[in-house]
Amino acid sequence: MRFLKRPEGVLNVDIVREVRDKVEDILSQIKERGWEGLVHISQRLDGIAPFRISPQEMAKAWQGLPPSLKDALKVAEKNIRTFHRAQKDIFKTFECDIADGIKAGIRFIPVKSAAIYVPGGRYPLPSSVLMGVIPAQEAGVERVVVLTPPGKEGNPNPVTLAAMGLLGVNEAWAVGGAQAVAAAAFGAGDIKPVDFIAGPGNVYVTEAKRQVYGSVGIDGLAGPSEVLIVADETADPRFLAADMIAQLEHDPNAKATLLATDETIAEKTIKEALDILSNLETASIASLSWEKGATVAVGNLQEMVQLADKMAPEHLELALKDPQDKLQLFSCYGAAFLGKYSSVPFGDYIAGTNHVLPTGGSARFQGGLGVGTFLRPLQHLHLSPKAAEMLALHGAMIARSEGLAAHEMAMKLRQI
Fold first, then answer.
1. Into how many domains does the chain fold?
2. Both 356 and 405 in a single domain?
3. Are residue 47 and residue 100 in the same domain, yes or no?
4. Which residue spans within 47-120 are E strands per DSSP?
5. Do 165 and 278 sit in the same domain of this protein?
6. What is the pTM for the complete model shown?
7. Are 238 and 351 members of one domain?
């Protein structure tokens, strides 16, 4: 594989250590001091104490939206809910007969409470409200809490509030950063602790989720946004360039990779990307990440499949002829977008798939946010007297080999 453009990004270990230490201190203060600690930290970092957002404020924000934006959010809500509601068919209670008198099964039960973190930094993200809350609702989570930072003027972005109103959210707090994660994990004042925390955030939010894992469940550790595009001679360079830049405008550390089978397509895509960057409202961010995180390479499809599965990208675009057939070659990705018209932003906003996806190679061992994220598979076992007697002999032998005498005794007592 030959590279036409390589990224210039470098991981700063000192920054990683600084984030870890700051988050550890924030978590410790809130765990020990509760609401007092949360208020102190929030006022220091955001200039405002946390406050509960009333459903009336959400409803007012929804009513204040332009009709065209209301229609767009309704379409997104319908599509996302349809896709996630259909997922429930996968998670059905079942029992099976393992042998005569041995019955085993699984029940899928939702967590009782979940906090959905919705970022509010560089851009307002009403789409993250939909992507986080809808799967939790469809899973049947009793208590769904939204946490989102206050804006510069004190309140979260009105569009974010409106999205909460659309979904009927009844508990939301204006609090962000690592302190929000701490409050959800340990509790602080009227913010009662939850069982599970989901949603993307900045490096402080992500590090806080990592540190509280074990006290609560988490959906994963989100890193900078990324896309890997595999393209052949049928691809449109303008489409490819736009899709790369769309990922790169998220964050200065975002990554976009193009692997092309055709060198002319690759070269044209670079030119198109530079043209887009020359007249883009978000060029200050996208241009920086283009230099730091954009890769363009040329090779054959087999090489691309190997590299793609090694990278395990958050978003995989297949701008190929017969993309549905080619998808079977790839096995590590957060979400795949098939064909030249299936741009990642459709999945980000409105098509129905979830945009909270594994990053940084974690798609090798986990998937994106969905209904199953909030469900716990609870196993059960029922033995008849005859089955217990039958298993006791062999089970006791295994227990004895491990030196666990009480295990051996417990099974032998079931012998008739």
1. 3
2. no
3. yes
4. 51-53, 94-99, 102-110, 113-117
5. no
6. 0.94
7. yes
In a domain? residue 3: no
Residue 372 in any domain: the answer is no
Q: Tokens representing 347?
A: 């999945």
Q: What angle in degrees, to the nearest 10, is found between the helix axes of 126-139 and 158-167?
A: 20
Count of beta carbons in the 10 Å neighbourhood of residue 193: 14
- Locate 244 and state its tokens: 């790369």
Q: Which tokens in the block code for residue 332?
A: 């590590």
Each residue of 389-410: pLDDT tens digit?
999 999 999 999 999 999 999 9
**Catalytic residue ranges:** 314-315
* Together in a domain, 238 and 199: no
* Residues of the domain holding 391: 384-412
In angstroms, what CA-CA distances link 7 with 241, 244, 301?
16, 13, 22
For residue 30, the surrounding DSSP H or E stretch is helix 13-33
Give residue-wise pLDDT tens across range 267-281: 999 999 999 999 999
Task: Note the residue count of the chain.
Answer: 416
DSSP 256-325: EEEEES-HHHHHHHHHHHHHHHTT-TTHHHHHHHHHHHEEEEE--HHHHHHHHHHH--SEEEEESSSHHH
For residues 185 and 243, membership in a common domain is answered with no
C-alpha 257 chain-centroid distance: 20
Q: Based on the fold, state whether residues 55 and 195 are members of the same structural domain.
A: yes
